[in-house]
């Protein structure tokens, strides 16, 4: 494990000294900020409508705007999840592909490092960078808690907010695991990013497909759908099945990565 | 082109056809023939690949790498099977925890009681078009009900257009989102429809489906009581009707009708409950006698009055241990900025108010009339239980327009604002129930449409109604919601936040990155 942590540290140090990573941070911050402000404007608009009439007379679909947690933070996490789908492939693409392109992969293979340590080290490095990227979005709930008002004094339901953020992190960790596996398959970084995106996007769109399917396929597709699994978590409900599902995808991706890297030893 | 290369291309195409055939069957066309043709063609093409690349397979099979490959494939397969099994267990048996403040995604006690008291299996059918926005909400709601009572509550979601025979059976309109609850099995199984996709309506539909017969509520009219219909409202005050209360009663399975007492000698036998709400003109003696006879025979009544009203029912109330105070109940500490707008968290242990205590809900009663509890002169078997009080700083203000402080001669201390009364009628011949029930509240404004949205007050009324009509399953709090929170930003504050979030924040990150990168480069 010590070797894995050393590899992770090295990966993180490479990430944090690369302008590319900061480009990704900036893109994540700019996009999520822009959409966050739009959510705020929408929230204020709905609250003004409610003040003019009453919540009882407004559509039940708009009742989420009664509070900042449901009206702003829950949809914000939905947006961050969608942005992560685009951002994560660019962070995971270099994990193995760059080593292959720079011909350092063979060196790694001959070094006294177990494949499992190599895979875990690379993954932990990727996990660190995605956590840092997603961590920038915590600034938005903090801003809301500074400016928001509620009778009890706490404008946000922090348990829901943090559980939602946990869901976002779980999603980021899953993206990085899938990206790590695809990065191990190719030496082209752009191809790795593109393939990761191509795998994750349809996977995320399974909810839409499930809606037009009939039982029992519908239930299976909904279970396999990333966003359906995350839906409850962002609303403040912790489900064992979501934890098991994401952990399974991560574990399976790491296993595939391990076998792919190991295959280089046979070749 | 070499045959081996052509075989590889065809093999790849065949694999795609083979793997996509379930999509054809279940999602795109739904045609079994098309799916079988695709799968068959795919198999043939994969066969072509195998035949043209036989030599490569021979080489692979004889090499050391092939054993390693097979071992890897086996490991992956075993791991996959293990993970599928684990996920199946998690999906079917996995726990869930509602971590929100106030447990807003958990079923209310009312729903739990209703589910626990289901006499037989109920199937809920959600008829929604697949793209309907309420789809996920309804599924999650159904899931919670099913988890609470897996043996007695089942559900399915159907597209009305793909199940026309069921849509016709339940008289559903095209494009309409509906939830139908069916009790038992067979074509003639009783069913009911939920008014909307919410826990409130779904549970009410459950109660309605499982209750025997229809509960009928009569609103006494003819003495200036609040009207039941919006059309009967005073033009100057269109919100001053009981239409929202009536609507809620209908949703909960009650039939609600207005009733004149003049010319009658008895309350109809099908009455579960009689409500008097804000009577302004005195009842005649024969009318009072009808009510007296009704209560003495085990009847159930809710009585709401207001400050200054005189309806001639004082003697009847006195028989049930209640005297209405003359004046306005006031409280110098527990009010909403006005001593006559009382905010009360002072409840007894009565079943009607217990859920309010559990949920820490305060009722708010503006211009309420307090009640005096009598110790003697009552009818035999009467038991009075005060339910809602003011604080110890309450008093009855007899001249509210002149001063808002307690004066000499005014009743002071903890006042009673609502009371529940029972009377043992088990020995009464031809009785309706063995116990008469009466709830008295010194405010009828809380029943009006314009005030019906106040959740604690609404709960007080509906719980009283459930208790009085003996619908124990309804005595609970309506589904909770998160605490309301607001954000007050004017245009310039929004501009500042936009600048901070979309400009300064990303650029700072970028600047930080460039600085670190440059510093590292120059090391």
Automatic annotation (TrEMBL), chain A:
Task: Enumerate the UniProt keywords alphabetically.
Answer: Cell membrane, Membrane, Transmembrane, Transmembrane helix
Tell me the superkingdom of the source. Bacteria
Report the GO molecular function annotations: ABC-type transporter activity
Q: Which Pfam families match?
A: ABC2_membrane_2
Q: Where in the cell is it found?
A: Cell membrane
Membrane topology per record: Multi-pass membrane protein
Q: Which InterPro entries match?
A: ABC-2_transporter_component
UniProt xrefs under PANTHER family: MEMBRANE COMPONENT OF ABC TRANSPORTER YHHJ-RELATED, MULTIDRUG ABC TRANSPORTER PERMEASE YBHS-RELATED
Task: List residues traversing the bilayer.
Answer: 20-41, 76-97, 118-143, 163-185, 192-213, 233-256
Where mainly located?
A: membrane
Return the protein name: ABC transporter permease
Q: Which organism is it from?
A: Myxococcus stipitatus (strain DSM 14675 / JCM 12634 / Mx s8)
Q: Which residues form the signal peptide?
A: none
The answer on whether this UniProt entry bears the keyword Cell membrane reads yes
Q: Does ATP-binding appear among the keywords?
A: no
Would you tell me the Gene Ontology cellular component terms? plasma membrane
From TrEMBL, chain B:
Sorted alphabetically, the keyword list is: Membrane, Transmembrane, Transmembrane helix
Signal peptide (from-to): none
Instruction: List, alphabetically, the SUPFAM superfamilies matched.
Output: Class I glutamine amidotransferase-like (SSF52317)
The chain positions of domain ABC-type uncharacterised transport system read 215-452
Recorded hits in Pfam families, A to Z, give: ABC_transp_aux
Chain segments annotated as transmembrane: 6-28, 35-52, 72-91, 499-519
Methyltransferase in keyword set: no
Query: In its UniProt entry, what is this protein called?
Result: ABC-type uncharacterized transport system domain-containing protein
Q: Which organism is it from?
A: Myxococcus stipitatus (strain DSM 14675 / JCM 12634 / Mx s8)
């Amino acid at each position: 494990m010590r070797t894995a942590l050393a590899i992770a540290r090295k990966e993180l140090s490479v990430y944090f000294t690369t302008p590319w990573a900061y480009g990704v941070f900036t893109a994540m911050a700019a996009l999520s900020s822009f959409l966050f402000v739009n959510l705020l404007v929408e929230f204020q608009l709905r609250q003004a409508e409610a003040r003019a009439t009453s919540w009882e007379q407004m559509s039940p679909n708009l009742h989420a705007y009664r509070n900042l947690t449901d009206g702003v933070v829950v949809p914000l996490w939905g947006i961050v999840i969608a942005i992560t789908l685009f951002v994560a492939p660019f962070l995971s693409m270099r994990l193995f592909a760059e080593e292959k392109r720079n011909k350092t992969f063979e060196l790694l293979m001959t070094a006294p490092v177990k494949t499992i340590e190599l895979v875990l080290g690379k993954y932990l490095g990727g996990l660190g960078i995605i956590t840092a990227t997603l961590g920038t979005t915590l600034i938005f709930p903090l801003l809301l808690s500074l400016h928001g008002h509620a009778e009890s004094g706490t404008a946000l339901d922090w348990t829901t907010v943090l559980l939602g953020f946990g869901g976002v992190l779980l999603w980021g960790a899953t993206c990085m695991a899938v990206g790590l596996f695809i990065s191990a398959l190719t030496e082209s970084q752009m191809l790795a990013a593109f393939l990761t995106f191509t795998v994750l996007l349809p996977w995320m769109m399974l909810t839409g497909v499930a809606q037009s399917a009939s039982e029992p396929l519908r239930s299976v597709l909904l279970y396999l759908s990333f966003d359906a699994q995350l839906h409850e978590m962002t609303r403040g409900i912790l489900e064992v099945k979501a934890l098991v599902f994401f952990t399974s995808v991560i574990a399976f991706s790491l296993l595939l990565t391990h076998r792919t890297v190991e295959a280089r030893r046979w070749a | 082109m070499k045959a081996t290369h052509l075989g590889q291309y065809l093999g790849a195409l065949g694999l795609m056809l083979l793997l996509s055939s379930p999509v054809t069957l279940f999602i795109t066309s739904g045609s079994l023939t098309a799916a079988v043709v695709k799968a068959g063609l795919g198999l043939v093409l994969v066969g072509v690949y195998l035949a043209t690349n036989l030599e490569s397979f021979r080489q692979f099979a004889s090499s050391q790498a092939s054993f390693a490959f097979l071992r890897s494939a086996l490991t992956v397969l075993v791991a996959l099977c293990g993970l599928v099994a684990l996920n199946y267990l998690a999906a079917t048996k996995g726990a869930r925890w509602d971590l929100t403040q106030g447990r807003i995604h958990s079923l209310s006690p009312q729903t739990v009681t209703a589910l626990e008291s289901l006499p037989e299996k109920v199937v809920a059918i959600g008829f929604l078009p697949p793209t309907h926005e309420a789809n996920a909400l309804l599924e999650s709601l159904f899931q919670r009900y099913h988890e609470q009572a897996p043996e007695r509550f089942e559900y399915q979601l159907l597209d009305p257009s793909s199940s026309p025979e069921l849509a016709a059976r339940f008289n559903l309109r095209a494009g309409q989102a509906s939830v139908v609850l069916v009790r038992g099995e067979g074509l003639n199984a009783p069913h009911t429809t939920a008014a909307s996709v919410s826990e409130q309506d779904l549970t009410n539909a459950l109660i309605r489906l499982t209750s025997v017969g229809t509960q009928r509520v009569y609103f006494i009219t003819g003495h200036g009581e609040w009207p039941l219909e919006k059309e009967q409202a005073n033009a100057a005050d269109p919100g001053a009707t009981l239409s929202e209360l009536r609507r809620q009663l209908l949703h909960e399975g009650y039939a609600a009708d207005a009733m004149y007492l003049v010319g009658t000698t008895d309350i109809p036998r099908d009455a579960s409950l009689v409500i008097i709400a804000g009577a302004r003109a005195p009842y005649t003696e024969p009318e009072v006698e009808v009510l007296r006879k009704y209560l003495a025979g085990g009847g159930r009544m809710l009585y709401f009055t207001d400050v200054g009203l005189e309806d001639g029912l004082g003697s009847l109330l006195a028989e049930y241990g209640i005297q209405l105070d003359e004046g306005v109940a006031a409280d110098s500490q527990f009010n909403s900025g006005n001593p006559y707008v009382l905010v009360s968290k002072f409840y007894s242990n009565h079943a009607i108010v217990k859920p309010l205590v559990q949920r820490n809900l305060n009722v708010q009663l503006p211009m309420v009339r307090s009640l005096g509890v009598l110790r003697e002169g009552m009818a035999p078997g009467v038991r009075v239980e005060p339910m809602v009080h003011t604080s110890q700083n309450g008093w009855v203000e007899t001249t509210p327009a002149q001063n808002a402080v307690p004066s000499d001669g005014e009743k002071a201390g903890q006042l009673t604002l609502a009371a529940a009364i029972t009377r043992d009628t088990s020995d009464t011949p031809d009785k309706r129930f063995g116990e008469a029930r009466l709830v008295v509240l010194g405010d009828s404004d809380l029943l009006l449409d314009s005030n019906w949205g106040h959740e604690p007050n609404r709960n007080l009324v509906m719980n009283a109604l459930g208790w009085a009509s003996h619908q124990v399953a309804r005595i609970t709090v309506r589904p909770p919601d998160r605490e309301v929170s607001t954000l007050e930003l004017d245009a310039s504050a929004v501009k500042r936040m936009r600048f901070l979030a979309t400009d300064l924040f990303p650029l700072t990150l970028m600047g930080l990155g460039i600085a670190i990168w440059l510093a590292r480069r120059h090391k």
